[in-house]
Amino acid sequence: MLKCAHFGTFESKSMKIATWNVNSFNVRHEQVMDWLHTHSPDVLVLQELKMEQDKFPAAALNMMGWQTAWSGQKTYNGVAIISRHAIENVQMGLPQMPDDPQRRVIAATINGVRVIDVYCVNGEALDSEKFVYKRQWFAALTHFVREQMAQYPELVLLGDFNIAPADDDVYDPVKWHEKIHCSSEERSWFKALLDLGLCDSLRQIHPTGAHYTWFDYRGGMFPKGLGLRIDHILVSAALKARLRDVQVDLKTRANERPSDHAPVFALFD
Amino acid sequence: MLKCAHFGTFESKSMKIATWNVNSFNVRHEQVMDWLHTHSPDVLVLQELKMEQDKFPAAALNMMGWQTAWSGQKTYNGVAIISRHAIENVQMGLPQMPDDPQRRVIAATINGVRVIDVYCVNGEALDSEKFVYKRQWFAALTHFVREQMAQYPELVLLGDFNIAPADDDVYDPVKWHEKIHCSSEERSWFKALLDLGLCDSLRQIHPTGAHYTWFDYRGGMFPKGLGLRIDHILVSAALKARLRDVQVDLKTRANERPSDHAPVFALFD
DNA sequence: GTGTGCGTTG
DNA sequence: CAACGCACAC
What we know:
2 copies of one chain form a homodimer. Chain A is α+β, with helices and mostly antiparallel strands. Chain A has 8 helices and 14 strands. A 6-stranded mixed β-sheet of chain A has the order 5-6-4-3-14-13. The first copy, chain A, has a 6-stranded mixed β-sheet with strand order 7-8-9-10-12-11. A two-stranded antiparallel ribbon of chain A has the order 1-2. In chain A, helix 3 (129-151) packs parallel to helix 4 (184-194). The longest helix of chain A has 23 residues, at 129-151. The two termini of chain A are 13 Å apart. Residues 1-10 of chain A have low confidence and may be disordered. The chains hardly touch. Chain A binds a DNA duplex through residues 23-24, 26-27, 48, 50, 74-76, 122, 124, 162, 216-220, 257, 259-260. Chains A, B: InterPro entries: AP_endonuc_1, AP_endonuclease_F1_BS, Endo/exonu/phosph_ase_sf, Endo/exonuclease/phosphatase, ExoIII-like. Chains A, B: Pfam families: Exo_endo_phos.
């Protein structure tokens, strides 16, 4: 934002918005600081903090000029928004699941953009009890996002969706056929979100090709380039009009003690 | 060793011999590699590998030009000899305790010097069952060293003795009076080793003063300089004649994720 | 494979 | 405070 004496306040609005499942903010704290310094985003949202609410290093981030909002718990889940700009109207959880103790959703308005950070349920396997929860949770998410879209023309829904939307997003679609993350039912949930009027920003910019965001620690999948695209940045029509680029930051996945997810970021005019 | 065309093979014999309780070689592997690179000893002996026998990274060490001999086990104990020179006549355990499963002793001949690496029993407390084992173990060690001294004029007995030989070796002798590591009975066992004809090399070079080698992780003892001298390098008369210096490497104790013990090294002509 | 907590040891 | 094993999650 530039303040000009003669022309009043001029909003440049240009924004860089990023998402990263850090798989423990305790462990990845320094890497997040490095990433903020190197990539200088307007907004970075995190998932899988695995950190208690009162252990979040808000003061250290504030000292570096960052605003923060977060929802943490011990061991599991946990989401955060880190922003160079003011964070307004923070909302946590899904209205349809008021008693869910799992910290998976945080939403806030930044520069007039509604940012909804999600760590979607993994689900383990199609025949798991956790898959039932995943189904219910995505229904509640869809309901929440529909309601938010009615209020905020400029909206971005981003995070770890634990769904690979198409076979292009899977290193071995035959092996993963109707497996967790790749089943047609999960893909129908993802499509239901798009049907609200959201656009899969990565596919808008890169209609084809492998742009994996997650690589299993097991079996050295990252060096082999074998992953899934399960981290997404979905944007409303108003934001889609401003979309200029989307990238998966594989360099960070190659770090010394990496998260199993790579950051993904989008650039807007 | 210098090879001279006109005068034949000339043995410089100058040696640097070091000991370090690494408190898990799994965790300290990289620090050990760094230490070898920085200090370039002739021999480094380790204690508390806490590593299974077949997990020892012998190949990696060989590639860096080091010879190795080790005796490992899961979780507890474990000793190793790392040498720039050939390692001969390797012996493990104490002859008087043939059935002891605890890996605490490894001996070998290097450059004509008998090197005996020991991780002596901790003992927990004077009224503990483990103290009975410590007593028995030191008797067996003394017997073994007597036998070895008869065979090898140049001998060094080094490692973690878990005994602070005198009040000078204790940051708070009153608090530690007749406590584990500092009791008169344990000190008598240490003296029994010296009485075989061994010399406490550190006290030979530095007759007085604090030269602590172990600092409890608990209560931030290292920054306060509060420790015990329980890691020792004892030398036979023939080696004592060649002794030039002994130092405790406190810089390594100040490492990022340190062992609770500092390395100790001795220089010989 | 790399995180988490817990209970145990030094 | 920092190793360990164990059980569990992803």
